């Protein structure tokens, strides 16, 4: 067999194997899912048995409140089928939270007083309460191999009107820690779209309580747009990994000169070098089908192209995963709901949006190249550009991955990975298709021209692998 053909066949078979296995194995495991922990080099996630875990998240923020049991079943099965293994969700969107069955979460809107009933029989309305529905959702997620990254109480309940005191927060966090102590598919997102430099006594109280009472469950902080947990809590003992919200604005919509704007890879590159070393990821980039800047519904909407760009920019800069979002799904929009951000699509339709279907390809790629020695390396790039011309690059000892969003030429400084020769191929983020380029001498500067015209959304990942 021709060596190039043999190489392409082996690489394609590897992607196929990843696609067939994915994370479904965990869903078939009896009992709880494997605990997720931090890798030995502190940059990535692994399961309890040290197998790499690539976080592919979805924002199902309002699932607990707006989905009935049939909706829960439908949503999590769909997300499993599309390769997602994490769903970010609010435990309490508001302190007056009531679920689809009319069950309030709290007594007198006091987070320290969860409203609990005896029993959990769904057929008996007097037994089945808000927290039983959370339990049901967690169990459905587990059966589908999905971890729930849960926000205890959304940030506006603390930042606007100070509706939650430190004392109440501690009692509430202890309740959550005790109730979900044995759930291995629970991850905690402290905060919730809020500024980390405000009300730090409350956020630290929640974080410390959750971590002290159950040290095996990971905890992070979900911050306000264009900010990062590392800016305020990186050295907090309760913070296991960093999360940033790259936000929903265009370059020209952002008046803040000190942030990274659309360049979410800059958050990753900064966090990657921080000490102590902790994983980081984009927990809220621009959502598919949401207006640029959020509030002006006459603005263009972010598309699958943009969602892929944020994803590949970040994970090929060293992020431990990536979270996707869709305007309709994040608010679980149903008939009769008051729309936010100009949305008119039902969540049951939006789960099949192009971007949602394409996220599995980023997961397959990173599972294929999951070596813990991978590091971002911009020295690979000989023709670096700005904004949408930017080329993200990561490498291990025997491979390199380089992403172009718009199909511009990639000029590489060779010799950065092992071997006298390397094999090159193109990976299509829109379809997962792999195309062989050929074998090349591993020295000098070499140009690689992607397929198609230079236009936004004609994105490709260049794969280099050392000759064995």
From TrEMBL:
Domain Putative collagen-binding residue range list = 375-465
Q: Alphabetically list the UniProt keywords.
A: Signal
Q: Name one Pfam family in it.
A: Apiosidase
Q: Which residues form the signal peptide?
A: 1-26
Question: What residue stretches are annotated with the Apiosidase-like catalytic domain?
Answer: 39-369
Query: Do the record's keywords include Heme?
Result: no
The answer, when asked if Signal is one of the entry's keywords, is yes
Cross-referenced InterPro entries, in alphabetical order?
Apiosidase-like_cat_dom (IPR025277), Collagen-bd_put (IPR024749), GH (IPR017853)
PANTHER family, A to Z: ENDOGLUCANASE, LMO1036 PROTEIN
Q: What is this protein called?
A: DUF4038 domain-containing protein
The major lineage groups are: Bacteria, Pseudomonadati, Bacteroidota, Flavobacteriia, Flavobacteriales
């Amino acid at each position: 067999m021709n060596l190039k053909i043999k190489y392409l066949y082996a690489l394609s078979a590897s992607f196929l194997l990843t696609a067939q296995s994915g994370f479904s194995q965990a869903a078939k495991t009896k009992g709880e899912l494997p605990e997720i922990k931090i890798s030995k080099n502190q940059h990535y996630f692994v399961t309890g048995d040290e197998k790499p875990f690539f976080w592919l998240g979805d924002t199902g923020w309002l699932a607990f409140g707006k989905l009935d049991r049939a909706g829960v079943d439908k949503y999590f099965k769909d997300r499993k089928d599309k390769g997602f293994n994490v769903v970010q969700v609010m435990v309490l969107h508001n302190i007056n939270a009531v679920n689809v069955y009319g069950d309030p979460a709290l007594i007198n809107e006091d987070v320290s007083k969860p409203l609990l009933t005896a029993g959990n029989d769904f057929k008996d309305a007097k037994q089945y309460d808000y927290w039983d529905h959370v339990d049901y959702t967690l169990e459905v997620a587990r059966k589908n191999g999905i971890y729930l990254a849960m926000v205890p109480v959304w940030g506006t309940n603390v930042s606007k009107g100070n509706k939650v005191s430190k004392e109440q927060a501690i009692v509430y966090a202890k309740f959550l820690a005790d109730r979900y102590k044995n759930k291995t598919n629970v991850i905690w997102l402290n905060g919730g779209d809020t500024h980390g430099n405000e009300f730090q006594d409350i956020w630290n109280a929640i974080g410390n309580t959750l971590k002290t009472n159950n040290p095996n469950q990971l905890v992070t902080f979900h911050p306000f747009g264009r900010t990062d947990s590392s800016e305020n809590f990186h050295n907090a003992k309760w913070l296991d990994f960093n999360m940033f919200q790259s936000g929903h604005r265009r370059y020209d919509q952002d008046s803040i000169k000190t942030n990274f704007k659309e360049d979410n890879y800059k958050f990753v590159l900064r966090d990657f070098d921080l000490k102590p070393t902790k994983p980081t990821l984009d927990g809220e980039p621009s959502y598919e089908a949401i207006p640029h800047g959020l509030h002006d519904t006459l603005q263009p909407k972010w598309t699958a192209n943009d969602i892929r760009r944020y994803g590949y920019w970040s994970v090929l800069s060293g992020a431990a995963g990536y979270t996707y979002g869709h305007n309709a799904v994040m608010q679980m929009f149903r008939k009769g709901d008051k729309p936010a951000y100009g949305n008119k699509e039902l969540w049951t339709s939006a789960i099949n949006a192009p971007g949602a279907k394409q996220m599995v390809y980023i997961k397959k790629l990173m599972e294929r190249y999951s070596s813990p020695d991978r590091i971002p390396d911009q020295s690979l790039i000989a023709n670096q550009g700005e904004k949408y011309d930017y080329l993200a690059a990561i490498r291990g000892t025997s491979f390199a991955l380089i992403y172009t969003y718009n199909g511009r030429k990639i000029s590489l400084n060779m010799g950065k990975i092992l071997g006298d020769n390397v094999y090159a191929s193109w990976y299509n983020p829109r379809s997962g298709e792999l195309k062989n380029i050929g074998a090349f001498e591993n020295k000098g500067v070499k140009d690689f021209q992607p397929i198609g015209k230079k236009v936004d959304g004609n994105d490709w990942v260049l794969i280099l692998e050392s000759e064995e």
